[in-house]
């Protein structure tokens, strides 16, 4: 199996991995059964509806993914702000301490 991008135990064909474990012969059988059951007039409409549904699902998935990434980024920035302020405050306090120690040495 080394060299193929298939998951462990997945079948391979001339074009690579089988989608969902379904090969070309199984896919043809499913399409023929769908043609017989649904009929040639309604099959294009069904395929169109299925395609629109999948496109809508893909759009919703991408939108969800983008929202999660934006929220994660906002939370990261929110967490960084107090840390940066604390670091800046420590630097200012260190500068003041240095100045005070210089004044004490002089005075």
Written description of the protein model:
There is one protein chain. The longest helix has 64 residues. The protein has a two-stranded antiparallel ribbon. It starts with 11 loop residues before the first strand and ends with a helix. The protein has two domains: 38 residues, no CATH class; 68 residues. By secondary structure, the protein is mainly alpha-helical.
- Low-pLDDT runs: none
Global Rg: 31 Å
Please summarize the sheet with the most strands.
2 strands, antiparallel
Bin the helical content.
Answer: over 70%
Shape: rod-shaped
Which short descriptors sum up this protein?
2 helices, two-stranded antiparallel ribbon, 107 residues, mainly alpha
Briefly characterize the structure.
By secondary structure, the protein is mainly alpha-helical.
Topology readout:
Elements lengths: L11 E2 L2 E2 L6 H15 L4 H64 L1
Antiparallel strand pairs: 1-2
């Amino acid at each position: 199996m080394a060299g193929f991008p298939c998951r462990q135990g997945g079948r391979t064909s001339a074009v690579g991995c089988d989608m969902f474990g379904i090969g070309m012969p199984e896919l043809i059988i499913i399409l023929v059964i769908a043609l017989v059951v649904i009929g040639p007039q309604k099959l294009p409409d069904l395929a169109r509806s299925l395609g629109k549904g999948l496109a809508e699902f893909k759009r919703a998935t991408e939108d969800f993914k983008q929202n999660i990434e934006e929220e994660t980024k906002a939370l990261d920035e929110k967490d960084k702000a107090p840390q940066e302020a604390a670091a800046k405050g420590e630097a200012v306090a260190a500068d003041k301490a240095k100045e005070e120690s210089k004044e004490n040495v002089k005075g």
